[in-house]
Amino acid sequence: MTTLRLGGRAIAELTLEGEADLEALPERVKRLGGRPYIVGAGSNILAADEELPLVIIRPLLRHGPEIVGSDAGKILVRAGAGIPLPRLLRFCAEKGLSGLEGLTGIPGSVGGAVAMNAGSFGSETCRNIERILVFSSLGLLRIGADQLRCGYRKLSLVGVEENFMVLEAIFGLTEAPRDGILNRMSFNFLQKKSRQPVTAKSAGCVFKNPSPEMPAGKLLEMAGFRGKTLGGMAFSSMHANFLVNADHGTARAAFDLLHEARETVRDRFDITLEPEVRIIPCRCF
After folding, report:
1. What is the pLDDT of residue 159?
2. Of 78, 126, 205, 278, which residue is the catalytic one?
3. Long-range contacts of 138-147 (CB under 8 A, 24+ apart)
4. Is 195 a catalytic residue?
5. Is 205 in the active site?
6. Which DSSP helix (H) or strand (E) runs through 29?
7. Are 240 and 263 contained in the same domain?
8. One of 58, 78, 153, 278 is an active-site residue; which one?
9. What angle do CA 63, 95, 83 make, to 5 degrees?
């Protein structure tokens, strides 16, 4: 279920195909006896090899993308959490709607991109959000842009606990020439393809960038980890901050490789790298 194609077995998987499924969700999770864990398309996740005490919840709400109106010069586009991000970008390009081109080449779903505030080429998902629909212990909530607290690869909501599930997002986009949008998307994708292992079994960037001047990839390369392998796992030879499953790797090998890299960077540069990839169950390596 992850783009790394590794990890242990969860208790169960529950898929949500509509808002009506939400009513039964808390009782179903309680009966199964595991901790709920929300997964979109499975990117940006490193799951341990062992039996996992989790109930995987996948919001496969695939309504849209569709234009639902306009506001203050912005065209409003709604997309369900289960819509693949590339599909949303294609829709925007076809309709001549600009704002999300920087997300080109990022795998995953709309829900995951919102929840992780996915970004690239100086763009972040949250910058274009007008409002989102979420489910939490408080029930269904419509959250406006003024209630979003966006950070580096994270999103929190004012007045809402951490455990919430994104069901849909409405983006505010600007009209622009279709050819220009397509050109920017094509350029961004070719840039990624030339620098990143976009076709590999990868979790994407595994560490957060400590600063723009000293990104994680540069630190890892200077520490000798570009292309370094261990037990079938590797730091990509194209980009040192990309963790890839090169040859039937395991999560244990991944943890060992990440631990070695983190310790080496800390010893050499006095910088502690923080994981960008979500590790389940949460643990220190």
Report:
1. 87
2. 205
3. 140/19, 140/22, 140/167
4. no
5. yes
6. helix 25-32
7. yes
8. 153
9. 25
Q: Quote the CA–CA distance of 200 and 245 in Å, as a whole number.
A: 8
Angle between helices 178-195 and 85-95 (to 10 degrees): 150
Q: Which of 56, 60, 15, 20 is nearest to 38 (CA)?
A: 56
Burial class (CB within 10 angstroms; exposed 0-12, middle 13-18, buried 19+) of 256: middle
Are both 183 and 234 inside the same structural domain?
A: no
Q: Are residues 166 and 78 located together in one domain of the fold?
A: yes
Mean of pLDDT values over 114-118:
93
Q: Which of 101, 124, 168, 276 is catalytic?
A: 276
- With 80 as the cut, is the pLDDT of residue 282 above it? no
5 falls within a domain: no
Give the pLDDT score at 284.
52
Establish whether 124 is a catalytic residue: no
* Per-residue confidence (pLDDT) for residue 79, from 0 to 100: 98
Q: What is the pLDDT of residues 235-280, one digit of tens each?
A: 999 999 999 999 999 999 999 999 999 999 999 999 999 999 999 9
Q: What is the pLDDT of residues 73-102, one digit of tens each?
A: 999 999 999 999 999 999 999 999 999 999
Whole-number pLDDT of residue 153: 86
Q: How many domains does the chain have?
A: 3
